[in-house]
Amino acid sequence: MSFEDLDVWKRAARLSAEIYKNTNQLRDYGFRDQLARSGLSVPSNIAEGMTRVSAKEQCRFLEISRSSLAEARTQIYIGIEIGYLPDTVAKPWLQETKEIAAIISGLMHSIMQKNK
């Protein structure tokens, strides 16, 4: 299966695009760049991992992706706290990061079970 067929990759790519679109007016370039890079890392690492041959490498990149989600979620919380991100935008992102992380965990579990 191609990574483009994975719903988790599609959701992560959509979240990354939403982050870019909704933060492009922020003047704090450091914050904007860090959030955009962590968001972009998620679908990128899913894609890279799913093109690897070994289950161990697939899971390694999925773990990186899941860690990037935690990083993005932290930055979203901070963005809310400092007034950079309105609740109406940020709260759905927080929920989406949690759901994507759970799907990635399930995918990792599935890969490991299949390759026992």
Give the helices and strands, then pairings:
Layout: H1 7-23, H2 29-50, H3 55-81, H4 87-114
Description:
There is one protein chain. This protein has 116 residues and is mainly α. Helices cover 81% and strands 0% of the residues. It is elongated and about 45 Å long. It starts with 6 loop residues before the first helix and ends with a helix.
Keywords:
single chain, 116 residues, 4 helices, mainly alpha
Number of distinct helices? 4
Could you give the order of the helices and strands?
HHHH
Basic shape: elongated
Mean pLDDT: 96
- Rg from alpha-carbon coordinates: 15 Å
Question: How much strand content do the residues show?
Answer: under 5%
Number of strands: 0
Largest sheet: none
Weakly predicted, low-confidence segments: none
Pairing-aware structural class of the strands and helices?
A: mainly alpha
**Approximately how much helix is present in the residues?**
over 70%
Through-space gap between termini: 19 Å
